[in-house]
Amino acid sequence: MKKVFLLVFVVLFVVSLGLSEEVNKDGILKVAVEKDARSLDPVVVGDNASFQMYTQVFDSLVSVTKDLEIVPSLADFRTEDSKVWYFNIKDDVKFHNGDPLTVEDVIYTFEAVMDPDTNSPNYENLKVIEKLEKIDEKTVKFTLQYPFSAFLERVYTQPIVNKKLREKDPIAYGLNPVGTGPFMVEKWEKNNQLVLVRNEDYWMKYPNLKKVIMKPIPEPSVALVNLESGDIDMLTKVLPDDFTRIENNKNLILDVKPALNYYYLAFNVENKPVNDIKVRKAIYSGVDMNAIVETVVGQAGVRAKSSLSPSSWAYNPEVEKYALKYNPSEAIRLLNAAGYTHGFEITIFTPQDTYRRKIAELMQIQLQALNIKANVESLEWASYLPVIDAGKASAYMLGWNWLTDPDGLIYDIHHSQTEAWANDASSYNGTRFYSKEVDEALEAARKSSNIAERTELYQKVQEIWFSNYIHIPLFHKVATAAFNQRVHGFEANAIEYTFLCTPDTNVWVEAE
Amino acid sequence: MLRYLIRRLLLLVLVLFGVLILVFTVGRMIPGDPARVMLGERATEEMVQNMREKLGLNEPLVVQFGIYFFNILKGDMGTSITQFQPVIDIIKNHFLPTFELAFMSVLWSISIGIPIGMLAAKRKDTFIDYASMTIALFGVSMPVFWIGLILIIIFSVNLNWLPASGREIGIFAALFSFIQTGDFQVLWKGFSYIIMPSLALGSMFAALIARMTRSSMLEVLNENYIETAFAKGLKTKKVINKHAKRNAMIPVVTVIGMQIGALMGGAVLTETVFAWPGLGRALVDAIFSRDYPLFQGIILFAAMFFVVTNLVVDIIYGFLDPRIKYQ
């Protein structure tokens, strides 16, 4: 019997040895990205493409885990009232050039962003900061204009730069930045590759990857071919048409996760005929939105019923009743009641993105049956937003991403922007739907740190918004990533960030 | 000759000035605001206005043009609005990849196009003629984008011989390094990336050159002096190589010159398919983000290159055909 036990033990031991993989610390990870960064200076650029690259080089005061929990990074934080925040920077954090991280670097970073002359795209995110003070050699005090529960998320979006170097030459700093992050820039050939090497003295942990090469490949089919041929190891954006192809490839892994975003059709309620709720409802029930989204988006997303996704704590399941089913006769009845017996003509504006354009085209076909002549106009971004801002678009499609706190989505797209509307100026809410109740609820929720109270307020906002049919919610897109079997420790995540070496990730690649 | 050159150079300045006015006004006519694009969706109107002020976009158009023009005269093409770098630096960074691509594709198109065209002309109305011209027609008609993807599927996915996209080291650097060290690996690394994009791009021009060479050759072969040459008892090979080829090449050289010039504006589609870091992609990005100084700079540069190449081609005529005299 003893011998049997011994044998079982030995077998188990050998098997476990075989199973426990040894982490390779010399791997090179080649990632395909859609676009190149414009600059690597986090003070002057904030677009997604640039962010994905410079976050490998820089750290922020706080970081985000895979489960979207905000945790301390360069600094520990505390607050009592969400209005005054203290950040205590950690000892022994050094920049890539050996400079120690100081309170001055932190203050400089935020002040540079807040300086109107910098024209930082992150200004709007951080303008809630009223005052920055140095308390001692390790502590910075942030005083906000009002208590702001989602402030940490805003802090996360602003990596800390090296004051001395950036002040000397901001342009050069943007081309060859020196941060505190897990990787250092070895070379950057614009539109070709960004080569990053491991920061051997990274304060947080020892990064498993020796090198990371980020290659902008604009054409998704070519990026996929590169993945299949092994020229790159990872793709962070996968088209739904390619899902099966990747799943059938035994060398590749496809990872799909629900993501925090919202795509919608919005009405400008100042414009005829959609100023009439009956018309808005007629358009909604005149199209089979479930089928359209299913056809167009397929596995790449799920049908949305509200601006927040059902996984959010602030989601209001009650608004699902406002999602109208396909009912052409009801649509015709509504149109008649609104006085549009002979229909009308309307233009649906969309960006040049396949999903939204196709949805609009399918809507166009179904609306014909109601005598509504819908034109579809797809514009590229730079031309698109001004059309919405100027109030010219009666129906338009947009999408919005958010990070960890619902405030980042719900406040921006539902709060009224009366001043901007009056001047046809830029705003993120182009619906021109004004509701004092919505505004007050959003402001109160932003200032509260009581989750139960905030939930109630956000649910109220959703109730008012969707019962008025200001938006037709389209879909929540999923986050996708496809990578080689040799890549370990990477997961697609809800905010679609490329986490390579963060508090709870440390990606590694098997030796070839 | 000198007077001709001076006149052409003056004309060149005039052409470039015209290009400048055109690019400047057309660029401003596209709806969209660089300040808005740069500051992103979260920008407030106040920020956008502040940025416009800083970029000088609130000045009257004529004033903006005047400032831009005088800066150009001083050799300053301005700073890119979206990338914060001097335009000239961005052009410098993207020029070499584009030049390499143009160079290689011209090489392909000459080495494929001229022999095929010659052969077709020599064997006029035979199977070879029909076959080669059908292939050429195919080459002209196929979109570069499609040819590119087919090449990738064959050579990268199926055969795994060539990398699907990107660029490692420049071909000239690779060649230089090979001559110095004899390291074939480096040479291959340089060339393996450019083979497919240049072939995709060159195939279209190869087809064009083949058709051009054939018709030009046929025309020359009907000339009296060729008949005389044959009558003298010269062999066909000699007649073609000595007498016909040189004259037949004049229109072909024009096409090649135009090709080089046109390619310097960047072969946008090829560069996109193969993720080639050239001027074409930089130009398209600049237009989409309404980066006025950058796209004006790239177009001006490309126009300049085009005009200069044409001038060089005209001078080469003189060597090919001594009858052409410039006055």
Task: Report what the structure shows.
The complex is a heterodimer of chains A (512) and B (327). By secondary structure, chain A is α+β, with helices and mostly antiparallel strands. Chain A is built from 18 helices and 22 strands. Chain A has helices at residues 2-19, 48-54, 103-114, 123-126, 151-156, 163-168, 170-175, 220-229, 243-247, 277-285, 289-297, 328-338, 354-368, 381-389, 407-414, 418-422, 436-447, 451-467; strands at residues 27-33, 62-64, 70-72, 75-79, 84-89, 129-134, 139-144, 183-189, 193-198, 209-216, 234-235, 252-258, 261-267, 301-303, 344-351, 372-379, 395-401, 471-484, 487-488, 501-502, 505-506, 508-509. In chain A, the strands form five sheets. In chain A, strands 1, 8, 9, 10, 11, 12, 13, 14, 15, 16, 17 and 18 form a twelve-stranded mixed β-sheet that branches. The longest helix of chain A has 18 residues, at 2-19. The radius of gyration of chain A is 25 Å and the shape is globular. The model of chain A is unreliable at 15-19 (pLDDT under 50). Chain B is mainly α and 327 residues long. Chain B has 14 helices and no strands. Chain B has helices at 2-29, 34-39, 45-55, 61-73, 87-122, 127-141, 144-158, 171-181, 184-221, 224-231, 236-264, 268-273, 279-288, 292-320. In chain B, α5 (87-122) packs antiparallel against α6 (127-141). The chains are: A alpha+beta (512), B mainly alpha (327). The interface between A and B is large, with 47 and 51 residues.
